[in-house]
Amino acid sequence: MITPGLLARVGDVSVAVMKTFGRLLVLAPLVMLAACSTITTKRDFDKKANFAEYKTFAWAPLPSTQAPAPAVDEAIHAAVEKGLTARGFTKAAAGKAPDFYVIYHVTSVQKTDVRHYTDWGYGTAYRTGYGYYTGWPGNPATYAVLDQYKVGALVLDFVEVRRQQLVWRGVASGVIGDKPEENAVKAGDAVHELLTKFPPPPVPAG
Predict the structure, then answer these.
(1) Quick one: three-class SS letters along the chain?
(2) What is the mean pLDDT of each run of 10 residues along the chain (206 residues)?
């Protein structure tokens, strides 16, 4: 069952995740602008966990402060359940304790990218503190282009029920838009990418 202690830790994890990934997203590579469909993923897991013992899963309540658009929430649930089922896991029946809980967190940050380019084909007049002055014929003119976009992150956690311990975490980030339906597709793709390497291989003894 989901105990108050587990929910408290989930809440703490949510806060830590939002703080951590808020910082990471600020440092996200601007190359993502050139390939908006790119999804960057990272994974880590508890080396002491025996993933071969896990057979069933269930969803833990999502903190209300982290609830995304319904379309995105549905896409994440569908992709996780499809991915885990394909890997031999079963969703626990109602009222039955699962082997691990699935918890996810989402966050986003607005980004601004300033790019400069130079047009070498036109003369330009400039205004300074000393008045106007002109360049030579064909002098280069430099322009600044301002791009604003949003980067989102999905954090997927698996928590072992018996030990009430986080045992696996996957993080996916990428450029998102303002349309929930499009973001739902990206969220489903992100889950698919994260689960391609779940469960992790056994850790050699010693």
Answers:
(1) CCCHHHHHHHHHHHHHHHHHHHHHHHCCCHHHHHCCCCCEEEEEECCCCCHHHCCEEEECCCCHHHCCCHHHHHHHHHHHHHHHHHCCCEECCCCCCCCEEEEEEEEEEEEEEEEEEEECCCCCEEEECCEEEECCCCCCEEEEEEEEEEEEEEEEEEEECCCCEEEEEEEEEEEECCCHHHHHHHHHHHHHHHHCCCCCCCCCCC
(2) 51 44 36 53 94 96 73 96 98 94 87 64 48 57 66 92 94 89 94 96 78
